[in-house]
């Protein structure tokens, strides 16, 4: 049993393959207990129905989880045409059923075309967004519906993978804030028959575009056979979560002043934007370039 006394400081990122039927928070807590981690968080919730990549940030890695939330994502989704549900997925109540047209690639591609690129999405009622301090899904469970302003999202790629009877399989590469359930519902309306999600898998989340994921079962087996040392061997360094950022390497004296909260000059540094900061002893944290060419600390690691 893990108690406050047995919890430990451990830093790193675990690329978890979340199983179906488990909430993201429940999956997080299982990982946290296995690692006996004092601090943990996840980067981007998945619905219980969904499987796939759920980055678990332990210790100091929780400081970058917000940046991972802003990352592009890629999903593989199966849509059941002909039925619209209360939640937009198979867990909801069927609200209406309509005949499905004779499907072919040309028909589906025509319906998909307006859903690509920069679009506006109305968030679903069954979502974690807040309205007057309350989660939308809490209101939805009470049978309430409130107006939700549309939000801009970007669908970088929307690929038709297969048509199987009244089911369509897609791959979606999208920006942060995209609701795949809403995308599927919009496809169903474009085809005139309604649709909902029956299977959803997150294949990657930037910068982990070719993730080597670990299942909960594999973690439990590894913990039993190799203990904490074996589990720690699966963790990625904190800085790997910011792999698409430019690096700034500081000499010892500059690193010292930066860690005291001061902006410092760096030769040949990037002109602007966020950067990863490194000193002689390794990764320091996150910084931002100032207009005058200095780099300022924004969020540094504590250890």
General description of the model:
The chain is of the alpha+beta class and 303 residues long. The chain folds into three domains: 92 residues, Pseudouridine synthase, CATH 3.30.2350; 133 residues, 2-Layer Sandwich (Pseudouridine synthase), CATH 3.30.2350.10; 56 residues, Archaeosine Trna-guanine Transglycosylase, Chain: A, domain 4. It is 22% helix and 35% strand. It contains seven helices and 18 strands. Strands 1, 2, 3, 4, 7, 10, 11, 12 and 13 form a nine-stranded mixed beta sheet that branches. A hairpin with a 2-residue loop joins β16 and β17. The chain is globular, with a radius of gyration of 22 Å. The mean pLDDT is 92.
Short description:
The protein has 303 residues and is of the alpha+beta class. It has helices at residues 24-35, 65-69, 105-112, 136-141, 180-190, 216-232, 252-259, and strands spanning 12-18, 40-42, 51-58, 73-81, 83-85, 94-97, 117-121, 130-131, 134-135, 151-164, 167-174, 195-205, 214-215, 247-249, 264-265, 273-279, 282-289, 294-300. The longest helix is centred in the C-terminal third of the chain and has 17 residues, at 216-232.
């Amino acid at each position: 049993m893990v108690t406050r006394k047995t919890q430990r400081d451990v830093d790193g990122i675990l690329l978890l393959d979340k199983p179906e039927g488990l909430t993201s928070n429940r999956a997080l807590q299982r990982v946290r207990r296995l690692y006996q981690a004092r601090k943990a968080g996840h980067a981007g919730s998945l619905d219980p129905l969904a499987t796939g990549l759920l980055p678990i940030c332990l210790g100091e890695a929780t400081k970058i989880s917000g940046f991972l939330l802003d990352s592009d994502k890629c999903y593989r989704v199966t849509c059941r045409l002909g039925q619209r549900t209360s939640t937009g997925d198979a867990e909801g109540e069927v609200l209406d059923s309509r005949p499905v047209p004779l499907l072919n690639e040309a028909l589906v591609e025509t319906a998909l075309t307006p859903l690509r690129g920069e679009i506006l999405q109305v968030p679903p009622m069954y979502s974690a967004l807040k309205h007057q301090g309350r989660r939308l899904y809490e209101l939805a469970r009470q049978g309430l519906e409130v107006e939700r302003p549309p939000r801009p999202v970007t669908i970088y790629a929307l690929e038709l993978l297969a048509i199987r009877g009244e089911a369509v399989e897609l791959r979606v590469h999208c920006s942060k804030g995209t609701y795949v359930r809403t995308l599927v519902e919009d496809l169903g309306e474009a085809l005139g028959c309604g649709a909902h999600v029956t299977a959803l898998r997150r294949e990657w989340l930037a910068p982990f575009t070719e993730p080597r994921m670990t299942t909960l079962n594999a973690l439990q087996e590894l913990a039993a056979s190799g203990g904490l040392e074996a589990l720690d061997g699966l963790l990625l360094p904190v800085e790997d979560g910011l792999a698409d950022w430019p690096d700034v390497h500081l000499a010892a004296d500059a690193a010292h002043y930066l860690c005291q909260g001061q902006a410092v000059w760096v030769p040949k540094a990037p002109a602007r934007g966020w950067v990863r900061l490194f000193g002689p002893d390794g990764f320091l944290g996150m910084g931002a370039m100032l207009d005058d060419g200095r780099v300022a600390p924004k969020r540094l690691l504590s250890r």
